[in-house]
C-alpha cells in the first residue's frame, strides 16, 4: 500500500466553486441552483453512484432514462406552451446518455448558456421523480389509505345521500363530504417543485377529507366531535401545519357561552339558532390569518389540520422473535369549512383552479430560474 503524504498538489489547479460550496454549507436548496460542479464523465458517474444508482446494475440506466423522458414531458406539458415545446435543445431533450446532462449543467463557459440552463431544469424535475419513485411511504400507500379511511369511516357515516359526523352522541349533518384518496403523480411532482424546502419537505395531502357544514358554529362542534373520538388530539396533530383562516375561537367561546342553554334544550336540530349564532360570531370575530401557504387566495377560509396516524405494515425481514408489525407515522389532512366559505372557493382568487395556477407559476420560476425565463421570453419575441 502506497504511503500517504499530506499535500495540496494535484493534477488540476486549486480552484474552489464558491457558489456550490455555499449551497452545501448554508443550506441552499438544489432547486435554486443554476449550475452543478462536475468536471468530467467519470465525475458524473461517481456523482450518480453516490446519489443512489449503481450503473453496473442493468436496470439502473433504464430507470434514469425513464425519469429523463418523464421530466421532459412534464416540463413541456406543465411549464411550456405548445409553441415553446421545441425550445428545449435536442441534446437535452434526447441525449445519447442522460448522464451527459450532468456535464451540460456544470458547463461554466458561456458559449452555450441555454444548454446549461435547460439541463439544470430537466435535472431538477428528474430529482423530484426519483424522490416519488423511491418514497417508501408511497410504496405502502394501499395499506396507508385503508387504515386512514378505516378510522374516518367510523365517525363519518352515510344515510342515503346524506353524510353525518358523529362521535356516538352528537350527529352533525354535512353539506359536503369530499375524500382525497390520492394525489396524482404530476400533482405530487408539482407540489414538490414549488415547495421552499424542495424534497426535504414531505407532501401532507396525499390523503385527506373536507367536511363542509352549513355554519361556522357547526365547524366548532365538529372540532369537538373529532376531539372526543380522538381523531384530533394534542399528540397527533402537527401543530406547525395547522392552517386556520376560518374560526376565531375566542369569539366562538363567547357566542357558545351565550347560547349553550338553548342548544342543550333544543328538541330538533337547531339550524336556525346556529345561523343566528354565526351572525353574532361574524360581528365580533377578528380576521384569522394563520396560513403561511403563499398560494392561498384572498377570501379562502378553512380550518385545516394535519393529523399523524401510526400505520402498521408487515415486515418481511422481521426477526423471528418480533411478533408485531412495523409502524411509521403518516400525515393526512382534515379540512373544515362552512357553506359560505365553500361557495367562495368555487370561483375567483379563492378557487382551486386559481390556486393550482399559482403553484404552477411558482414551480416554473424555481425550475427554470429567472435567467432561463428571460431566454424563453426573448426567443418567443424574436
The CATH topology of the largest domain:
Beta Polymerase, domain 2
> Which value, in Å, is the CA radius of gyration?
26 Å
**CATH-defined architecture of the largest domain:** 2-Layer Sandwich
Output the number of helix runs.
14
The CATH class of the largest domain is Alpha Beta
Could you tell me the strand content as a percent range? 5-15%
Class inferred from helices and paired strands: alpha+beta
**Order of SSEs, N→C?**
HHHHHHHHEEEEHEHEHHEEHH
Estimate percent helicity: 40-55%
Low-confidence regions? none
What does this structure look like?
It is a single chain. The protein is α+β, with helices and mostly antiparallel strands and 382 residues long. The chain folds into two domains: 29-134, no CATH class; 136-247 and 288-350, Beta Polymerase, domain 2, CATH 3.30.460. It contains 14 helices and eight strands. The protein has helices spanning 18-26, 41-51, 59-78, 90-93, 100-104, 113-133, 136-139, 141-152, 185-194, 216-228, 249-264, 271-284, 339-344, 352-381, and strands at 156-159, 162-166, 171-174, 176-180, 208-213, 243-244, 303-313, 326-338. The strands form two sheets. The protein has a five-stranded mixed sheet with strand order 4-5-8-7-6. Strands 1-2-3 form a three-stranded antiparallel sheet, covered by helices on one side. Strand 2 (162-166) and strand 3 (171-174) form a beta hairpin. Helix 6 packs across helix 9 (185-194), helix 6 (113-133) packs antiparallel against helix 14 and helix 9 packs across helix 14. It is elongated and about 85 Å long. The chain starts with 17 loop residues before the first helix and ends with a helix.
